[in-house]
Every structure is written in structure tokens, then in C-alpha cells.
Predict the structure of Cytochrome c.
Amino acid sequence: MEETIKKLQIALGVLLIALLVVFITGAALIISYKPEPVVITPKPGDPTQPPKPAAPAALDPVAQKGESLFKNNCAACHSAGDDVVVGPGLKGISKRAPSKDWLYKWIHNSSAVVASGDAYGNQIFNKFNKIPMQSFPDLANEDIDAILKYLDAQGG
């Protein structure tokens, strides 16, 4: 009888260990499970789907030139939006600046504008840690106009 009880105790111990292994394995599988994302393909005209945003308008040749000039001369320090990089984001710059002539002077040589005592120029200079903007004396006013057209096309 004692021998039978010992055999039952051993069998029960083995059964408990087996159940523990199954439990741990199942828990590990549950934890590591990553379901595939559900992709719902909307049907044309489905009113439950939000409308697709309109594609951005194609840039005209002048704005395309402005985009290239912006990327090559301005994008290292400025965003075309509101984000500050080194200098301010240029969204809305045509409306913020005192005049187009002021922008020409500022872009050609901002240090000269600051040195002249220009209030708006000094405000920008001080706001951005007194870091002078790089001068671009070789950009023609038409190039600056192209950059401004590109910026305006970006929502500015």
C-alpha cells in the first residue's frame, strides 16, 4: 500500500510539472503573439470612409525654380513651414516682413540691415540668439521672388 501511495505521489508530481511546463509555454506564446494588422479596403463611395485629401497642386516653373533655390540655399537653416530650424520657419514670410524690398535687403545682407538699426531686423536677430543670417548677395531679386512664390505655394 505504501508503495502504491509513493507511485501516486510521483505520478502526481510529474503531472504537476507537466502542467507547469504547459502553462509557462502557453503564457510565453500569448506574450509573444503579434497579430497581423487588419487592412480594410474601402469600397468606392463608402460613406464611412473619410474623404481623401486633395493632391497638392503642381508647382508652376517659377515656384519649381524657387523650390530648388530654397533647398540649395535656405533649407539648412529654415523650414518652409512653421518649424524653427536654426532660423524661423518661413511660412507666411511675405506677410510678416515689412516689405518685399526689405526682404531683398535682408536676404542679400542681413548684417547690414541689423547694423542700420532696423527695428524688425534687430527683433529677429535678437530672437534667434544674435546669430546672423548668411548673406546671399548673388541671389537676384527674381530668385528671391521665386523662393517666395514657392513658400506661398507651401501654404505660407
